[in-house]
Amino acid sequence: MNQDDRAPFVQALQRAREAAYASGEFAGQESFMGASEILALAAAAGIAPRVSVLDLCCGIAGPGVLIARELGCTYAGVDASASAVAIARARARGLRCRFEVARIPPLLPGRFDVVLLLETMLAFPAKEALFQEIAGSLAPGGRFAFTVEAGQPLTDAEREAMPDADTVWLTPLPELLAGLERARLAVRWQRDWSRSHLATAESLAGAFAADAPAIAGQIGDRALAELLAAHRLWIDWLRSGRVRKIALVAQTASAPPVRTGRPPASARPSLPRAPAGPPVS
Ligand SMILES: C[S@@+](CC[C@H](N)C(=O)[O-])C[C@H]1O[C@@H](n2cnc3c(N)ncnc32)[C@H](O)[C@@H]1O
Prior knowledge:
The chain is of the alpha/beta class and 281 residues long.
């Protein structure tokens, strides 16, 4: 589904999205995450006032605006879609947010305390190269917080069935974890959100189907059919365990200890270690 002009999609799907999420859980996200999961991941990454955040593939900044508003961080969002960024800029008015239109990699120049990648890891075939780039963009002790669809790569038949399969690159979790380790990113926090994302996918599919005539009237029959087909596949795959949705926070090494004298006043406090999630293999 080509969403280069994002506004018609955002408008067409707004009513169904509002209906699909539980009360207080819709914040403009274009994904299966609920608002409380977005904030839980942000908190696990140590996002707080004065923390600098780079949000990769921010879309219309549903999560970004929620995080910037609730947690008071300094926020930069980047997305390849100029129309999505135009909507994001309008949504973020009055907040300490800036946006760039860019296809990543490469990442924006500069160092950040936290890099976010929400609900878009599956679009990157070369995940380990991306981890290396992200590690290079993080300040010492910086955190990379993301969600990922974990599973064996799609078969030819699955690729045939999935609309826009060229943006669906599943990777087994052990391979992802090994890639993080090689990029010197140590996992600090991990959750399996497969069950809640299955419930959200089911709810969204039901709401899109219920509002089908109005949605098709704005984006066309074909785009609606592809949207529903993709949701049906995610529902099947999450229900059967073919795919699992994992949320992770991984951290770079802290700055090397100062060998003589007292630590400088500017030394960053280290991130309190969030409790590890249940083991996920
Ligand atoms: C599913 S949306 C998720 C948006 C947002 N993170 C959220 O959770 O609501 C995926 C976004 O990633 C963007 N995107 C995909 N590949 C990209 C790339 N290589 N560089 C920049 N943006 C990309 C798309 O334009 C789209 O806005």
